[in-house]
DNA sequence: CGGGATCCTGCCAGATACTG
DNA sequence: CAGTATCTGGCAGGATCCCG
């Protein structure tokens, strides 16, 4: 596999870390995976679990993960339509990763939020003094 | 902390997983962290390790991680200038996560690439038949 | 050497409306 | 119910030039 010059649309990746980011780094993917870890979910069920995600974005991210066979999409041919999403075998292998991410976030969220606020205050003070100089 | 309606620019997050993505989900952040895991790096050293990243993007992502105190930035007041980046204590806590990501990528990259190629071929075939119908 | 400042562009995400 | 289709604006990210 040649690096840097993919011969078609399917990319080559210079580093495994980059590749993993490409697979689960989508804005909502890991959150979707998290919700699928506790069981099969229907489309609107996922919408209710993630109200901030628009329908369109949810669909797109689900499609990408379906292509990567991270998740499985089962369509029931009935009226009204019914579609169930679940973790595919490859998706199961991501469970430890998602779990680690969740634990890290829970443990450090408050701290980082404080860091960000501090940096924000600093920037404002800086803007103030540069105003006073003029 | 109110959800959904942050009272200033510093966001609140509905879920720890989402938050973690926000911290390390930047396009290059986890790759930068990976390179800092093996030791302190200078700016141009990082550029050489990641030629695909533009200077601007490298700077921006480093700044964000500095604000979050994931990494530490040490400036030497000398000519020519010298800046060293290293993992801050909070960044150290991310090492297991990055390692897991790297291992997952290494183990499954080839498989997923194949899945993507297959899906691509499928889409092309589909486009072909829909052409033939007209 | 290690950036900052600017300008520019594409594509991504949101909103809305429609459908099998 | 579980999606597509279309338009649209914003901003992520590239290219380029400048600077201490």
Rg of chain A, Cα atoms, Å: 20 Å
Helix content of chain A: 55-70%
Mean pLDDT of chain A: 86
Order of helices and strands of chain A: HHEHHEEHH
| CATH structural class of the largest domain in chain A | Mainly Alpha
How many strands, what sense, and barrel or not for the largest sheet of chain A? 3 strands, antiparallel
Largest interface: A-B, 49 and 48 residues
Instruction: Please list the strands of the largest sheet of chain A in the order they lie side by side.
Output: 1-3-2
Number of helices of chain A: 6
Shape of chain A: elongated
- Which class do the helix and strand fractions of chain A yield? mainly alpha
Query: Would you give the CATH topology of the largest domain in chain A?
Result: Arc Repressor Mutant, subunit A
Measured between the Cα atoms of the first and last residue of chain A, the distance is 58 Å
Number of domains of chain A: 2
Poorly predicted residue ranges of chain A: 1-9
What keywords describe this structure?
homodimer, 134 residues, Arc Repressor Mutant, subunit A, 3-stranded antiparallel beta sheet, 6 helices, 3 strands, DNA-binding
């Amino acid at each position: 596999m040649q690096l840097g010059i993919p011969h078609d649309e399917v990319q080559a990746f210079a580093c495994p870390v980059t590749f993993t980011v490409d697979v689960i780094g989508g804005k909502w993917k890991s959150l979707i995976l998290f919700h699928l870890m506790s069981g099969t979910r229907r489309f609107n069920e996922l919408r209710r679990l993630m109200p901030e995600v628009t329908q369109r974005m949810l669909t797109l991210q689900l499609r990408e993960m379906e292509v990567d066979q991270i998740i499985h999409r089962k369509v029931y041919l009935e009226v009204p339509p019914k579609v169930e999403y679940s973790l595919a075998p490859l998706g199961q292998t991501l469970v430890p990763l998602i779990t680690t991410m969740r634990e890290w976030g829970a443990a450090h969220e408050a701290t980082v939020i404080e860091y960000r606020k501090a940096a924000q205050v600093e920037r404002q003070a800086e803007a103030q003094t540069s105003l006073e100089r003029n």
